[in-house]
Every structure is written in C-alpha cells, then in structure tokens.
C-alpha cells in the first residue's frame, strides 16, 4: 500500500461544478491520506498528504500543465520541507526565478489546498 | 529547415508514446529533422496525464475486461480515451515556437483548425489546449518541452463513444446515466458528426496539407535507430507498472 498512516476520515464528497477555489473536503481512508481538490478553469488539482516516518509528505496531482514538468518535484519538496508561513513566498520566488509556467493551477490554489489539509492534520 | 512527415500508422499505446519520445531525443541530438507524425491506436487505449494517478482516473478492471491498455504520458493534461481518432504529434526545436506555452498551443492548434477548415468544418481555438466546433470540443492536445525540443500531441475525434469512455474512466456510477451521457454529448463532437460522409483518408490528407504549408516537407519514416530506441523506451518505461501507475 502506498500510504502507511491512517488519518481521521470521512467520505469523499461529490465536487460541485464551477467553483474556483477549494471545493473538496475529504479523507481518502482507503489510501490513508488526506485529499483536497480544487477546480480552476476546468483543470483539477489534487493535494495529497500522507505521513511517512513522522513527516507529512505532500504530493500534487491533477490534469494541470507545468513546464518544465520536472519542477513538480521541487514544488512538492517546498510544500513538504518549508515552514508553513513561508511556503507561499518560497513557491512564488522559485516559480519566478526558474521561469516555471503553471497552467490550470496557481500558487494561491496550492496554498489554499495546503491550508485545507493542515486544518485536518 | 526541412521537416519530416511521418504518414499515418497504428500502434499500441505504449509504442505510440515511445515513438514520440524517441523522436524527441533524436531531434535533441541533431539526429532527426523536425517531425510531424499522424497515428492511431490499436488497440483502443487510455492515456493519463503526467501528473495524474492511474488508480484515481481509471477503472482498471473495466479496462482489463475491455482489453484497453492504460499508459501515462510525459505531457500534462487529463485522461483521454483513444479509439476512433487521428492523433498528431509535432516535434521541433523549441526555438521554433514562442516561449509562452499558451501561445505555442494556439499556433499549433491553428494548423489543425486550418485542416478542419479544408474539410468544411469551422472550428476555433479554445484556451488552454482545445479546439471546438461551436462550443463543443473536437480536439484536445498536450505539450511538453524537454532537451530543447517541443513535443505537442493532440487528438482529433473521428467518432466518439461517451458511454464506453465513461465505463472505463473513474466516474461515479450514478453519473453514468443516460441523462449524464446525453449532457456530455452536448459538450463533445466528432468529425463524423459534423460530416458523416467524411473518410479517414480525407482527414489525413487535410492534416498533411495544413502542416506542410509554409514548410519544406519530405515524407519520411522512422530511422532504424529511432525505432530501436522507441522499442527500448516502450519496454523499459511505457509497458511498466512503475511508470504507468503513478508519478513517484
């Protein structure tokens, strides 16, 4: 099984259409991780959080575009390793300095998802 | 610079993705010309986007039962069911296109729109990466830039079977009602719906013509090295659980 730690849980709810901000609350108990979803401009972004060796690991999934794609690893690392209060700034600087193009997702969306996850940790 | 045009061929999903990647590498190394490629899918297949997880997107039991392989792309975007369609790939040094991703989508989608126009179908570009007839999607595409090379691949729907598509993708069962299928049908169209007399060959010719305009083009084929490399990439990447299930 990919996720080893079970968090508190609840059923995954249907995603209401057309909401620009965080629209999904739920715990994926099957995979033992917290899952938050956000839809923006028809693109879906999913933030998953799971515990590994007492550390919360974040992964981003979805049908968004990111150029270069390899930047996803660094973005996830920033989410996982940065202090919460500085994550947004670090992400913005990284994206600007490395000319990363995010399409269908943006930093505020990721931060909102992160906030949602943190309320349930 | 001369472009190479690879005529329409059918391959399995893993090989289709591997061929694109092999060509990308060869262009990057200066061993292949900028290339336009047309292809189909045999058997029908699902591809998922680079940032998607197969277990979240696809009903693997249904896919196994239907003999539909599932492959993860190197490009972003969503899950796509490839059955009755013509797929194109365009591969060229990224300096040939604007740096801004959306601008390059618009340029390449513009060529497909020209091809549709030649077939008497009036289509428009819809950001980020779609082509629509009226408000109904007929083509979607996805792009990556790696090793200095731009790869954009996209689908042009010949025909569409929404019910079959939904039976393979992870969509709540209550959504797969006749009513829901009908509502999605209003959002999607196909070449055959636009013109039932249209033949696949006409579409291929129109695409070849549109992609050739303003370019020096030669009809080509994969080199032996490209094919060998594609076969290796297929086996070592696109046919593996490790790659196809989820990004690690």
Summarize it.
Chain A is α+β, with helices and mostly antiparallel strands. Chain A is built from 3 helices and 7 strands; from the N terminus they run ββββββααβα.
Protein described:
The complex is a heterodimer of chains A (121) and B (248). Chain A has 121 residues and is an alpha+beta fold. Chain A has 3 helices and 7 strands, in the order ββββββααβα. In chain A, strands 1, 2, 3, 4 and 5 form a 5-stranded antiparallel beta sheet that branches. Chain A has a two-stranded antiparallel ribbon with strand order 6-7. The N terminus of chain A is likely disordered. In chain B, 39% of the residues lie in helices and 27% in strands. The model of chain B has no long low-confidence stretch (mean pLDDT 94). In chain B, helix 1 crosses helix 9. The relative contact order of chain B is 0.21. An 8-stranded mixed beta sheet of chain B has the order 7-8-9-10-6-2-1-11, sandwiched between helices. At the A-B interface, strand 4, strand 5 and strand 6 of A face strand 9 of B.
Helix content of chain A: 25-40%
Mean pLDDT across residues of chain B: 94
Shape descriptor of chain B: globular
Shape of chain A: globular
CATH classification class of chain B: Alpha Beta
Might you state the CATH topology name of chain B?
BirA Bifunctional Protein, domain 2
Helix-and-strand structural type of chain A: alpha+beta
Low-confidence stretches of chain B: none
If helices are DSSP runs of H or I spanning 4 or more residues, what is the number of helices of chain A?
3
Would you identify the CATH H-level superfamily of chain B?
Bira Bifunctional Protein, Domain 2
Low-confidence stretches of chain A: 1-31
Structural Rg of chain A: 14 Å
Q: Which oligomerization state do the chains in this entry correspond to?
A: heterodimer
CATH architecture of chain B: 2-Layer Sandwich
Number of strands of chain A: 7
The topology string of helices and strands of chain B comes to: EHEEHHEEEHEEEEHHHHEHH
Largest sheet of chain A: 5 strands, antiparallel
């Amino acid at each position: 099984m990919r996720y080893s730690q079970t968090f508190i849980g609840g059923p995954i709810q249907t995603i209401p259409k057309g909401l620009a901000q965080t629209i999904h609350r739920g715990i994926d108990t099957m995979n033992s991780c917290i899952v938050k979803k956000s839809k923006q401009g028809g693109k879906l972004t999913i933030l998953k959080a799971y515990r590994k060796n007492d550390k919360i690991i974040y992964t981003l999934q979805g049908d968004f575009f990111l150029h270069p794609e390899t930047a996803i690893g660094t973005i996830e690392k920033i989410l996982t390793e940065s202090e919460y209060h500085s994550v947004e700034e670090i992400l913005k600087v990284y994206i600007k300095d490395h000319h990363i193009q995010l399409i269908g997702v943006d930093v505020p969306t990721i931060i909102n998802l992160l906030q949602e996850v943190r309320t349930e940790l | 610079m001369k472009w190479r045009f690879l005529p329409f061929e059918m391959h399995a999903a893993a090989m289709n993705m591997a061929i694109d990647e092999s060509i990308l590498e060869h262009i990057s190394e200066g061993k292949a010309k900028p290339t336009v490629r047309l292809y189909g899918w045999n058997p029908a297949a699902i591809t998922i986007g680079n940032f998607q997880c197969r277990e979240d997107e696809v009903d693997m039991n249904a896919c196994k039962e239907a003999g539909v392989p599932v492959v993860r792309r190197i490009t972003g975007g969503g899950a796509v069911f490839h059955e009755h369609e013509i797929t194109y790939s365009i591969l060229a040094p990224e300096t040939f296109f604007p740096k801004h991703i959306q601008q390059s989508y618009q340029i390449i989608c513009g060529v497909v729109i020209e091809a549709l126009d030649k077939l008497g179908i009036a289509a428009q570009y819809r950001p980020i990466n779609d082509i629509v007839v009226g408000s109904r999607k007929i083509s979607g595409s996805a792009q990556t830039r790696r090793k200095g090379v731009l790869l954009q691949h996209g689908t042009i729907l010949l025909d569409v079977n929404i019910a079959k598509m939904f039976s393979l993708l992870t969509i709540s069962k209550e959504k797969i009602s006749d009513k829901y299928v009908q509502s999605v049908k209003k959002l999607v169209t196909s070449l055959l719906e636009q013109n039932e007399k249209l033949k696949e060959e006409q579409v291929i010719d129109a695409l070849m013509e549109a992609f050739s305009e303003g370019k020096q083009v030669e009809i080509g084929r994969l080199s032996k090295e490209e094919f060998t490399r594609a076969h290796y990439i297929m086996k070592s990447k696109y046919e593996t659980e490790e790659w196809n299930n989820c990004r690690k």
